[in-house]
Write a structure and sequence with these properties.
heterodimer; A: about 350 residues; alpha+beta; 2 domains; eight-stranded antiparallel beta sheet; 12 helices; B: about 170 residues; mainly alpha; two-stranded antiparallel sheet; about 10% strand
């Protein structure tokens, strides 16, 4: 499987990517916030040994990333690629990261829980992502005794993750639902169904680029399969709704929408400075334009890649230095221009 | 009118009221404008902290604040401050209040999902015992004592097989 952002997954007109993660803790150690540095180091070592121990094939497939000694900007790049959480990037503890070479599977060590096993995939691939996490979990369970209780299930540092300790998330592109002002209704409805929806990339809760993350809230009392299935069902409903609204807007306000999309495309092609918010909005319009058949030179993987690369950490890595605010906007515009020009 | 205090900074007056609905259960969070405006991420840890002491005070074991985990030393006060559990043993020490807490935040208290291989047989036995106990009560109610005796023996057998592990 390819990296999520350069792969075309199922239902990718609406579902950008899938992420599933399982939280696991060693039975014999206190949870990370109460571990000594020595214990944290032992946990990292035991995890690396358990995963790559005797299996040469597997050892070749994974890299142990020296996350602890990485500078902050480099860490940020991993956050922007969604391979690690912000919490891991900000941690001053003995944190570790095991990453599969295709960047599909990442195992965060000593975040809120000892282990966070995560799988990323393009488009809607909840079952597949869960299967992969489950496989890794089974593999690690052969060597590690994970904290488990007959009643409460897998024990976690925070009771909101207990039980299955699964968090399944979908990144959804919902421009039509946003444009028609129905996002609030969606938010409330999903809340009632035990799912949370929040804006992605934007600070606060506001979404930038009409990107939303849908995740399950309940982890206890339902099986992993039930959680994944009910989420999939709801996500399909949302996807269908978004598709219908896109058609509807196209039918009623076709010329205006087309104008909006093509203007955004023009700005991305020629602008000399782009703020993060503007770039996200324009890329969102162009993404919509691609699936409406208006823009043919680019596809959704270009948008994924650009949305990722225009984030501050990745831009600074791209230009090889720390950028001031004005410089950042100029470099962002130049990156986007070059990416589009190379495709056309 | 006395304004409530912000649950995030615990200093300023709360003027922003946030309601989350999880599994049909309503939880309220009160924040000051500063904390809400600073892009404070609504963290479930904040929402649940303060809940662990609930339903505990009336138990015969005494006030919650005096109990500490015998393995990692976590107290209810500490949990209420951080929203984080100290170790796996804490779930045993604070089992009863934890059930109340989990009922509130998860809507459930019993795990239904994956079981690690080394627990699988035990876990299946426990679920079977629970089912049998229900059937046993029903048998006694309808005065089917013959079947009740059979069930009682089966429960004993299963419990012996589990080696008395909780």
């Amino acid at each position: 499987m390819k990296r999520w952002y350069i792969d075309k997954g199922p239902d990718s007109d609406v579902v950008v990517s899938t992420r599933v993660r399982l939280a696991r803790n060693f039975e014999e150690y206190p949870f990370p916030s109460r571990c000594s540095r020595q214990q944290q180091r032992e946990i990292i070592q035991k995890t690396v040994d358990a995963l790559t121990g005797d299996d040469l094939e597997l050892r070749k497939g994974f890299t142990v990333i020296d996350f602890k000694n990485m500078d902050l900007n480099e860490r940020l790049v991993y956050v922007e690629k969604r391979l690690v959480s912000k919490e891991l990037a900000r941690s001053d503890q003995e944190v570790g990261l095991l990453l599969s070479n295709d960047e599909q599977i990442s195992i965060m060590i000593n975040e809120e829980d000892h282990l966070r096993i995560q799988c990323l995939a393009a488009g809607m691939q909840l079952e597949k992502a869960y299967e992969i996490c489950n496989y890794i979990d089974n593999l690690l369970s052969q060597k590690i005794n994970f904290a488990f209780d007959d009643t409460f299930g897998y024990l976690t540092s925070c009771p909101t993750n207990i039980g299955t300790a699964i968090r399944a998330s979908l990144m959804l592109h919902l421009p039509a639902i946003t444009m028609t002002g129905q996002i609030q209704i969606l938010l409330e409805t999903c809340g009632k169904l035990g799912l949370s929806v929040r804006g992605l990339y934007g600070e606060n809760t506001e979404a930038s680029g009409s990107m939303y993350q849908l995740s399950n809230q309940i982890t206890l009392g339902k099986s992993e399969q039930d959680i994944v299935m009910s989420m999939k069902t709801i996500a399909y409903q949302v996807t269908e709704q978004e598709r219908l609204l896109r058609k509807d807007i196209m039918k009623k306000n076709g010329p205006q929408l087309e104008d909006k999309i093509m203007r955004s495309y023009g700005i991305l092609k020629y602008a000399r400075a782009l703020s993060s918010d503007e770039a996200m909005e324009r890329l969102s319009d162009v993404r919509l334009g691609i699936f409406a058949g208006l823009i043919t030179g680019l596809d959704e993987t270009d948008i994924n890649e650009m949305m990722l690369q225009i984030q501050p950490g990745s831009l600074q890595k791209y230009s090889g230095r720390i950028l001031g605010a004005d410089e950042m906007e100029a470099v962002r515009a130049s990156y986007v221009r070059n990416h589009i020009a190379a495709k056309e | 009118m006395v304004m409530p205090i912000c649950q995030v900074c615990k200093k300023r007056e709360a003027t922003v009221f946030l309601t989350q609905i999880i599994n049909g259960k309503k939880t309220d969070l009160m924040m000051c404008r500063q904390c809400a405006g600073e892009g404070y991420k609504i963290d479930l840890n904040t929402l649940i902290s303060g809940l662990l002491g609930l339903g505990w005070e009336n138990e015969s074991i005494g006030p919650a604040t005096e109990i500490a985990c015998d393995r990692c030393g976590m107290t209810v006060d500490e949990f209420n401050r951080t929203g984080k559990i100290g170790c796996s043993r804490c779930y045993e020490v604070f089992r009863e209040p934890m059930k109340v807490l989990l009922k509130r935040i998860q809507g459930n208290t019993r795990h239904q999902g994956k079981v690690p291989e080394r627990y699988a047989a035990d876990h299946a036995a426990e679920i079977e015992v629970e089912r049998l106990q229900q059937e046993l009560r029903e048998c006694i109610r309808i005065e089917n004592y013959e079947r009740a005796a059979e069930i009682r023996d089966r429960i004993r057998q299963l419990e012996a097989g589990r080696g008395g592990r909780k």
